[in-house]
């Protein structure tokens, strides 16, 4: 079996929760796209990252069913693990900085496929949702405290690949931040925390805590 690390990205304030991410530090051990897709499906994480150049931050990202040009939580996790100032993805160059307990990336909302951002009237409605049928990537959200920018969210990929709900979804958080034009403090899934802030030129900063699980 190929060696890989497991991180939890966007952990809560006490280090719990977070979305598990697989990182293959030696991407040359799995060189082909077909092999990478097969391993990502076998591991079953929402995303798996293959590192092709750790010093330059060149990475390749896969869900269990598709290759992605960009994804938020894999970039936060890989940026933290590699401790580099930037990551190179097929979508573009992602800025990285570590500030205390948070790792931040800077990316553009159009780099990821569009999600259906579905607003609800209350956090309770979001929490009571059942997993919808496969088909559309749905980011369900509601303000917990609109004045403070506190949001309750859940993410449903709808891909039919075994990942029915994402515990934390960075790309959707970036797109919501861009749409609302304001900084957000998002609680997603069972208790993951994502922080965002719009930047000049339609860039968005996304930050969270990362823990090395194994």
TrEMBL record:
Top-level taxonomic group: Bacteria
A GO term for molecular function: catalytic activity
One Pfam family recorded for the sequence: PhzC-PhzF
Stated name of the protein: Phenazine biosynthesis PhzC/PhzF protein
Organism the protein comes from: Streptomyces zinciresistens K42
Lineage, opening ranks: Bacteria, Bacillati, Actinomycetota, Actinomycetes, Kitasatosporales
């Amino acid at each position: 079996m190929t060696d890989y690390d497991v991180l939890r990205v966007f952990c809560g304030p006490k280090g719990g929760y977070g979305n598990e991410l697989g990182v293959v530090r030696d991407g040359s051990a799995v060189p082909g796209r077909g092999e990478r897709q097969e391993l990502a499906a076998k591991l079953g994480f929402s995303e798996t990252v293959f590192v092709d150049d750790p010093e330059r931050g060149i990475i390749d990202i896969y869900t269990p069913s598709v290759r992605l040009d960009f994804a938020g939580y894999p970039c936060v996790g890989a940026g933290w693990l590699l401790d580099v100032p930037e990551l190179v993805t097929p979508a573009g160059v992602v800025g990285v900085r570590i500030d205390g307990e948070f790792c931040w990336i800077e990316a553009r909302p159009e780099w990821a496929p569009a999600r259906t951002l579905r607003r609800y009237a209350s956090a309770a409605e979001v929490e009571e949702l059942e997993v919808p049928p496969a088909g559309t990537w749905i980011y369900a959200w509601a303000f917990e405290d609109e004045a403070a920018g506190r949001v309750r969210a859940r993410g449903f990929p709808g891909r039919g690949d075994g990942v029915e709900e994402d515990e934390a979804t960075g790309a959707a958080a970036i797109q919501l931040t861009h749409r609302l034009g304001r900084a957000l403090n998002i609680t997603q899934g069972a208790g993951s925390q994502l922080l965002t802030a719009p930047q000049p030129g339609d860039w968005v900063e996304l930050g969270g805590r990362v823990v090395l699980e194994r």
